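Chapter review: from sequence to fold.
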Amino acid sequence: MKKYTLALLIMSAFSILFFTSCKDKKKAEKKETKTVVIPKKAPKPVVKVKPAPAPKPVIKKVVVKEGEWLYNISRREYGTSQGWIKIYNANKAIINDPNLIFPNQELVIPD
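The token string follows.
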């Protein structure tokens, strides 16, 4: 019986040593786990679109015919008689009096 008792003591000592070493390995494995950082997706590049250049305004000119007034020219060019003020303001360097325009005068018609 002494042989069996001694064998049991030795086996229990080894099993205690074995299980405690396994726990230490598990703790070590837990400590060794790495945290994996997943990189964020790169932001999409911002594409700046340049606006199209504004079209150059077309300067329209009209030559005054005999018997025409700013009123008539405005009705022909704009479809309304109230545009004569625009024509007069655009041509103040040429026209002193809006009631007096002369044939062959070249007037600028603003948009």
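Two observations follow directly from the output. The longest helix spans residues 2-32. The chain has a mean pLDDT of 81.
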